[in-house]
Write a structure and sequence with these properties.
alpha+beta, Thrombin, subunit H, Pdz3 Domain, 2 domains, six-stranded antiparallel beta barrel, 7 helices, 24 strands
């Protein structure tokens, strides 16, 4: 599917045909945002298998997996303790990193970061009829919940899981969120939960990262790519018809086997979940990842309710262009073109012509940035929007409604 184009008239209500949005907008994409999923990259490692009755099943390989993974575990355990400080403090819910800043170590520490993350990364063998594809997942909680990229497991008849140390089984799909492209799986096993970045951590452009996935071939084995954060907060048109907001771009494509795996900073903390496809802009390809705070927000809801709850603001608009922003003395914003009469924004007094410049103190230089912030909220939350009108910016309190 082609990317969204500048000035797309949408469906007549200020919303894009391909984006069931939280807010609704007509997005004029700047050059650096004209990115899309390449269809051929959505599922990696696609290959034909034999008839379903004849295909090898994981339960027939448990003994060999235990042996292979056990051997790998002997070498990985030291790395895990060195980088993550051991597993003594792991809790059922999850581990969240507590830190103020991280200084990237030397490039030769990539191995230590990868092997330290490895015990929390699962290898997936995804069955669709007679076809099998490889993907990865990250252990969200030690009671068996994993997160992965939704496109990597879309349409699966069965998902076999192999983890470091010999744990193997068939995963149950708990739920999938189409708007954010996040899927949650469950395996009946006690697992080593990943160390996740805290909500307050910000991933800086230029930061060095390691993408860690795993392969089920011959048991369990690491798949690793390295890269630099090229951009954050990007809007991408996906191949499944949704629009992703607030995405992380890496300066080069990531290894196919890392799809659904962990994007890790150089201290061994998971900062994102790797997308199942790369993005392309003006002939340059980028790796893509979903920020971990959004992943956690969506995954927690799926685990609790079976689906993610999204919010509705009732705004339709576009990005404030550069000339308009300069004339208003702003660095950017979301220009309101329509406020639904029965929507939360109209009830708070927001009108066409207003420019939303922040949400809860976070700048919203584009409509996409506003949507990305809202996707981290729940219906009933009250947000403080910075609204520019008549040369002045005031704060408006808005109670978010559930998305229909």
């Amino acid at each position: 599917m082609p990317p969204l184009q500048p000035g797309d008239p949408g469906d007549g209500h200020g919303e894009d045909h391909n984006d069931e949005d939280d807010v609704g907008y007509v997005p004029p994409l700047p050059p650096e945002d004209r990115l899309w999923r390449h269809p051929s990259e959505v599922a990696s490692g696609l290959g034909a298998a034999g008839p379903a009755a004849a295909r090898p099943r994981l339960d027939r390989r448990v003994a060999s997996l235990m042996l292979l993974s056990g051997l790998a575990g002997a070498s990985l355990a030291v790395g895990a303790v060195g980088v993550l400080g051991g597993f003594d403090d792991r809790v059922v819910e999850r581990q969240v990193a507590v830190r103020t800043s991280v200084v990237g170590p030397a490039a030769d520490d990539v191995e230590a970061v990868a092997t330290g993350t490895g015990p929390s990364v699962a290898a997936l063998l995804v069955h669709r009829g007679d076809q099998r594809t490889h993907a990865s997942a990250v252990v969200l909680r030690s009671d068996g919940y994993l997160v992965t990229d939704a496109t990597a497991v879309a349409g699966a008849d069965e998902i076999d899981v192999v983890l470091h140390g010999g744990v193997a089984g068939v995963a149950r799909t708990v739920g999938v969120d189409d708007l954010t492209g996040i899927a949650v799986l469950h395996l009946e096993a006690e697992l080593a939960g990943a160390v996740l970045a805290d909500d307050g951590d910000e991933l800086a452009v230029g930061a060095r990262t390691v993408a860690v996935g795993a392969s089920p071939d011959g048991g369990w084995d690491l798949t690793v790519s390295t890269g630099i954060v090229s951009a954050t907060g990007r809007r991408l048109a996906s191949g499944d018809g949704a629009t992703r907001h607030g995405m992380i771009l890496i300066d080069k494509p990531l290894a196919p086997g890392t799809a659904g795996g962990a994007l890790v900073d150089r201290s061994g903390v998971v900062v994102g979940i790797v997308s199942g496809a790369n993005a392309t802009s003006e002939g340059t390809s980028f790796g893509v990842a979903t920020p971990i705070d959004l992943v956690r927000h969506v995954a927690d809801q799926i685990i609790e309710h079976g689906r993610a709850q999204h919010v509705w603001l009732g705004l339709h608009g576009t990005d404030l262009d550069v000339d308009e922003a300069m004339a208003l003395g702003l660095s950017g914003g979301a220009l309101v073109e329509q406020a639904d009469a029965d929507g939360p924004a109209a009830a708070a007094g927001i009108e066409p012509g207003d420019v939303v410049v922040s949400c809860d103190g976070d700048p919203t230089p584009t409509m996409s940035a506003l949507i990305a912030v809202l996707r981290r909220h729940l219906p009933g939350d009250v947000v403080a929007l910075g609204v520019h009108r008549g040369g002045e910016t005031r704060t408006v309190q808005v109670t978010l409604a559930p998305k229909g």
